[in-house]
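[job 4471] stage=fold_predict status=RUNNING
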Amino acid sequence: MLTLIHESGSQSPAALARHLQVSVQTIRADVRALSERGLVLRRQGEVLPFPGRENDDFDRRAIINIDGKRRIAALAQELIEDHQVLFLGTGTTVEQVALRLGVHQDLQVITNNLHAAMALCHQSCEVVVCGGRIRRRDKDVIGGDAWRFFQRYRADVGIVSVGGMDDDGRLYDYNDDEVMAREALFAHAAQRVLVLDRTKLATQLRCTAGELADFDVVITDQALPDQLRSPLAARGIRFLSA
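[job 4471] inference complete, writing structure tokens
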């Protein structure tokens, strides 16, 4: 049950019962026990991954919902044109975007995501990598080093992800250093793109990281509710779902 919830995101007790071929009563008892141990979160008829203080390591996150992340990356790649300058932020979904950039000509990619940089080394584009203290678990550079780095450049497109989003479209991350790096990237990107897979939905973390209204394009692998999208779409924000 834990594996299913962490890999696929929010689940209803009925869906869990069907998948695991047990009764809903059994699922509810198990969910209650897991919730009491702080391993899952129960909310309004759903079972969600418990929002911890720190994110899972990069290698584990890279395989969670990989198909959804690849579909998101395919849509993001279609927004990019030859000869552009790109900012790529941290995260596994952004890495999937990097893996698809080989179809474009004469790109310059500026990133603090070492996984993305390694993927780009096998493609015909110029890569500029942030220097500074590497976060070993995630193999990226965040905080003040990334803030100063992104301030030195401008980009046509900036592509980022976040740690979570609540039901009202507010965005969250795990620590201030991640938020700081993203804000610097935003300040110098002409077009801001958020890539957000379904495991990040209905997730509140301890650090606020803006809101959907901060972006020009939002790409997800699961369509967001109309009541969330419609007011923002009326303001010109594009929503794409894979």
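[job 4471] summary: The chain has a mean pLDDT of 89.
[job 4471] exit 0
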